[in-house]
Every structure is written in structure tokens, then in C-alpha cells.
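#structure-requests
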Amino acid sequence: MKFMKLGSKPDTFQADGKCIRYVISDLATDVTIIIGEVKFHLHKFPLMSKSNRLQKLVLKASEENSDEIDMVDFPGGPKAFEICAKFCYGMTVTLNAYNVVAARCAAEYLEMTEDVDRGNLIFKIEVFINSSILRSWKDSIIVLQTTKSLLPWSENLKIVGRCIDSIASKTSVDPANVTWSYTYNRKLSAPEIIVKGGMKYQEKIESVPKDWWVEDICELEIFLYKRVMTAVKSKGRMDGAIIGEALKTYAVRWLPDSVDALISDVHSWRNKLLVETIVCLLPSDKGVSCSCSFLLKLLKVAILVGVDDSAREDLMNRISLKLDEASVKDLLIPARSPQTTIYDVGMVHSIVNQCMINEKCSQDLDLGKNDVGCTDFVLGHGSLLSVGKVIDGYLEEIARDPNLSLASFIDLARSIPEFARPVHDGLYKAIDMYLKEHLSLTKAERKELCSLMDVKKLTMDASMHAAQNDRLPLRVVVQVLFLEQVRASAGVQSLNNNPRDASRSATNTEEEWEKTAAEDCNSIKKQMNQTKIKEGEFPKNGKFFKKDSRNSKSGMQLLPSRSRRIFDKLWVVGKGHGENKSSETSGSSQSPTSMVPGDTKSAASSAKHRRHSIS
């Protein structure tokens, strides 16, 4: 820390209790200066020789036959006046970063200028500030902190502005030249000499990171911090990522961890101001330089402390630009009254919609520049795939909420375009969870919910799970089973060099799923019989056994026997025996003996089982 000593005479100021100060001298004191609750018993001549204001006040007091001068609202209080008084007496006084602002403001109040005496206190303090304080990183921050209690004097004397400019300028210097950081944890180590073969090979010096200054300014009050960061940004030489890191560090330093502390009456106003200030200081790149996790956490705090709508919308827009980096945990924003759900699904839906708008605008720009199609756009912007994945995970979490309406779930699921969701496993898990937690759904509602899912986009594991899931509508299960049999038969036919049939089996369109139950069953039965002939599989005692399965090249997995019950039932429907039965009924019917030789016992046995979900 820099310091400056003024004067050469010994300090003869004495105290008599807490409220009396006097000078030990052969001459009796002839004036009393009152600063707050403290009385200074001093001599007129040394004070008047340095202070123009005291000259006027002493003259006025003499005309009133009084020896007391009361200075109301003296900047810096008794301590600052004592420094000025000692300077007037020529006594030794030490100025440093902690008292120089108070002394400067007091000297200005007393009008200790060059017009009164050459080399007066104002001149000396200004030399010290400009030559030492403002050249020191540490002292500039300390001095800036002390200016708060001396407003508006420190502002009018431009001490605040000069300190801010000094700090902002130093943040943008080359880190290789930084040696003045005083709070950074990793201190520079001595150069490490690497020796090979007895000769000096190279020097390895630990470098200072570019964000070395971030922690140092975290001790500033929010008003001063805002002005410093504004100055840093205005320089135009600081990377947005570092500014984002600085704001994150400041938020962690000052925002409390607990919700109760955030919304407490004592600190709610300060926390609201803090969040609004941080949002205001975010880089102009709309948050690209800040992590999505930080922005989402800031949004949660903003909602709790009740920031204005503009700040909240700004955060949501920034988050939409980086939604592909979000995690499901970060998106779980607690709902506020009067909402009845656990999480604020509407806000996440708004963010997703804004994200899609941003991507559409980006796509239009790319189309204008490169004249490429939508497929090329998706390949070049894989972020949408990440968005689809994280929203499917989010849907699975919010599906556990019993108060979540079906409309909200469906609207959010449909906000993700088809090309951003090439695999529907995540969506299937979310739908299954919603069905599990909302058992009161009607048949029509279950059908509408499952219409979100395309069974052709399920992986093998998800298909096997869906085939045994009794929560799904029967029609969906039939679609899954039919698709798996078609895929299996296509693989068998390709091994037997029959590309025409394989192509036909692989080109099922959505309209095929709309055929009657009897037609579905006939197709499935035909494919299953064909597969058994190709693979040498034979029914035995109601169960399927694969002949010479060790040498089979098809790799096809047969369906569980309990799922075959579905085909038995649909076979009866196709024959005209089950027209009045609901497709959602979980009961089973025996299939005719003409279905497959030897399957009568199997069908009867399978009727004892129920479809179940593998959790």
C-alpha cells in the first residue's frame, strides 16, 4: 500500500476523553472548533495560515464575541479535521488509501488552496492521488470503496470517476504484465528452470489468467460495481466471456443461497436490485458469453425476488439462444402462485418457442446465403437435436406432477419440430410417465397423448418395452408389434436375397396403420408364419423355441408369449366375434384352432397373463 508523510514536527495532539482534543503548547488555545460531538481546542494563527474558510469563520466569531466555531456536516468527521489541523501545525501526518479521500474532502471544505499558501494540503493530496494511488490496482479499489461515505464530495471532486477509470483501464492490460492483483488465490510462482544435460533448456513461468481481476472487484458495493463494469465494457477490449464470468462471480458472492434469505424483508430490495443490475450488465451478445446454467439460475432468483417484466424477458430471450446447453435440472423452475403446478411449464414453453423462432430466423439467413435445404440446415445446426433431447427429459420430469394438464404437456411436446426429434425414446418415456401418474385419463385422451409418438422412431429396447406396456392403448401396441415383425421379416428376406420383398416391408406408410384390426392381424399372422418357416421355429407346449438358434444369422428377437395374446384377440375381432369389445380391454380371447397348428394350448395359457410395463 502506498503512503505519504507530511510535516516534520512531532505530534502533540492529546485527547481528554472521547469528546475533547487539544494541543500541548506553551501558548493557551484561543479557538474551539466543534466537529460533530468532538471539540478541538486550538490556536487561530496556524489554522488561518492554511485555510481560507477558517479565516472567514474566525473573523465572524470575533465579531460575535465568541471563540467557538461549529462546523456542521463536515466531510470525513473529526478524524478528517484532525489530519487537516495537524497539517496546519506542521506536525507529522500519514496519508494512505484509507484516509486520503476524507482528507481531500476536508481540505476542500476548509479551502486549503494554493491561493492561501504554496504547497497547501489540496495540492499535496492531489499529487499523491495521481502519482501513487491511481497507479496502484489495490489502492484504487480501496479508495473507491471509501468514496461511498463521502458523497457527494468525492463525486464532485471526481475522485470516484478517476478511480473507476483507473480500474477499468487496468483490467484490459496484458495479463503477462500483471503483478498487482491482491486477492487472486493463485500467486505467481518463481520461474522454473528446466535443465537437460547440465544446460539451461527453457524457463517455465506460471501465467496469469485473463480473468485475474474478477474476484478483486467483488467487494465493491452494487452501485460502484455497476459503474466499474460499465466502464470496462465501454473500453471495448474485454471479451464477453470474461465479463460473463465476472458477473457470475459477483452474483455468487452476494446472492444468498437459501430461498428464505432471498425473499426476506430485510434483503429483498437489495437482492432485487442486484439481479436487475446483473441482467443490465450482461454482454450485448444476448447471453452467448454466459453459460445457460447461470442464466437459468439467475432467472429463478429473478422470479423469487420479483424483478420487473423487462429484466425477466431479457433473461428468457438470452436463455433461448443457448437452450441446447441447458440441463433438465436447470429447467425445473418452481411455479409461483396462483399456479397449481409444481414447475412453471408455461415459462419453459415460452423459452422453447422463442428458441424455435431464433432457429427459424437463422435458417432463413442460411437459406439466403447458401441456398440449401432444411435437411442441410439441421445437419449444420445440431443444437436443435440437443434441445429436443433436453425437452423430452423435461417432459418426463413434469409428467410426475398430478396437477399438470394434458393440454400443457401436449403443447410443450409439439413445440419441438419433428426433425429435432429423430428418436422417440425420450418422448415415449415421458408419455409413459404421464400415463402412470394420471390414471383417470379417458380413452380419447390416452389416444391423443400417444399420437405424439411415432412408433417407427422407437429403438429396439423401447419397442420391446412398449409391446408389454399395459398403459398404452391397444392400437399403439399393435403398431409396435406389427412394425417389429415387419423389420424382422425384412431382415430374414434380405438374407435370402429377396430385395423386392424387403423393400416392400420397409416402406410402410402412416396410412397402413389406419387399416382395420382384421387386416392388421392377417398381415401380422402372415409375417409371423413366414418368419417361422424361414428361421425353422416351431411352437411347442404353448412357447416358442428357435431351432439351431446358435447358428441363426437373422438376430431377430421373438415377442414374449404374453404379447401374442393381443394377436389372438384381434384374430377373433377379424373373424367377427369381437366387434362390440373395446380395443382398450385388457381381457383376452382364445384364438381359433385354425390360426396355427398347435397354438390352441398356447393361446389358452397366454390368456392367464397380463401385459405389464417394464420399469
